[in-house]
Amino acid sequence: MHLLGIHHLSAITANAQKNVDFYTKILGMRMVKKTVNQDDPSVYHLFYGDEVGNPGTELTFFEIPRAGHNHNGNNSISTTSLRVPNDEALKYWKNRLDQHDVENEGIVEQFGRNVIPLKDFENQRLILVSDETNHGVSGGTPWERSAAEPNYGIIGLGPIHLTVPDLEPTEAILTKLMGFTIAGEYKHHDTGREVLVYETGEGGTGAELHIHVRTDLPPERLGRGGVHHVAFRVENEEKIRQYLDELNQIGIGNSGFVDRFYFRSVYFREPNGILFELATDGPGFATDEDADHLGESLALPPFLEDRRDQIEQSLKPIDYKP
């Protein structure tokens, strides 16, 4: 596989309104799509990103109102990084997070980069990572109407952290199937444990997985504040279908081809049980909405449009004024 980097990441929230408030009003991301979980249209699926939700900038949330707390542990996507332009931006963000009483660890170093580990209101584990020294996949463009200073704004997803009990089978899938290569290692600033770094495509902050090997943790129990899956960028539908054939040929169970309307996908689990998705760069989020008005109303893919009245009645309205 010739993957281009990280495409998007989907996490769990129990409160759509508070989620929108945190990610748009505090982190200053744009809500580029307000839609529903296509597998359960009774709940929201919210997408945040750069000015138009370019591939590699999309952080998404499924709302599960009765979801219990996430029980952090093994076999998990354990931390999500968000890229900012440079080290100067991190100073701005340190002040902004403190002003909004957002729990954070201050500026620390991780794999030769400055970062700020933080948590959202549901203890979602996040990291702001500086692109000061990035020479890999380019970031996106912050929304000029952001609640945060656009010059320091979030420009995409950064390294995604996985925690697994057994490195070998996950490494085999990453390197022998998905085209990742080892990029280095570092000691985690908090645990002191070694973290292995793998990269794909052009590499850099937008194309890395950081793997923590832990044999002392129970499996994670997914809930609010946890991550459901991570998706990787694929050029187009033709490539998706080629990769699907390859998964089938080597006997890896998968979802088959899935049309998400805004992109095309295939899902599969790597050997430690973490859900991976391959997703195309297009068609994109301006397919059914004007780029100037993304996220302002409920968007439904064509195959759900005839159920709009029923779906809207099941959803609690979100107060969002971009």
UniProtKB/TrEMBL annotation:
The keyword RNA-binding does not apply. It holds the Pfam family Glyoxalase. Keywords: Dioxygenase, Oxidoreductase. GO terms for molecular function: dioxygenase activity. The keyword Calcium does not apply. Transmembrane segments: none annotated. It comes from the Bacteria. Residues 5-131, 156-281 form the VOC domain. This is Ring-cleaving dioxygenase. It comes from Piscibacillus salipiscarius.
